[in-house]
Amino acid sequence: MADYIDLYSESGWQDAPEYSDETRKKVLLDETDSKIILISLPAGFSMAPHSHLMSEQHIILKGEYESDGNIYTEGAYRNFDAHQRHGPFSSKQGALVLVVWKT
Questions:
Q1: Alpha-carbon distance 44 to 21, whole Å?
Q2: Which of 2, 3, 8, 77 is 20 to 30 A from 68 in CA distance terms?
Q3: SS3 at position 37
Q4: CB neighbour list of residue 33: distance below 8 Å, 6 or more residues apart
Q5: Sign for the pseudo-dihedral over CA of 16, 45, 53, 6
Q6: Domain 32-102: CATH superfamily, name plus number
């Protein structure tokens, strides 16, 4: 993996079929015990509640999303323990979110 990745550059983005239509991701790290992606949520994004085998962290860099009846805006940090159910998620206008999974 590269030492340097420009989070805001147009390069390195790919479709993210595991999310709703038009969602894009930029993989920053993909190892057995940790994964880091930058995810671009499109306007109208929605995702059902779910859980993971690893802990998950969100840092909202741009925009906002709604979850659990709250709106999380730029600068928000959220942490979910492994196996902790989280969501549903929605974003009316879209968001740019740094997502970190680790064991």
A1: 10
A2: 8
A3: strand
A4: 54, 102, 103
A5: positive
A6: Jelly Rolls (2.60.120.10)
Burial class (CB within 10 angstroms; exposed 0-12, middle 13-18, buried 19+) of 72: buried
Q: Which residue in this structure is represented by tokens 């999303």?
A: 65
pTM of the predicted model, to two decimals? 0.91
Measured torsion, CA atoms of residues 70, 71, 77, 83, in degrees rounded to the nearest 10: 50
Residues belonging to the chain: 103
| pLDDT tens by residue, 22-60 | 999 999 999 999 999 999 999 999 999 888 889 999 999
Count of Cβ atoms closer than 10 Å to residue 103 Cβ: 10
The single residue listed with the structure tokens 């969501």 is 87
CA-CA distance, 96 to 62, in Å (whole number)?
A: 5
Count of Cβ atoms closer than 10 Å to residue 55 Cβ:
16
Distance CA 75, CA 65 (A): 12
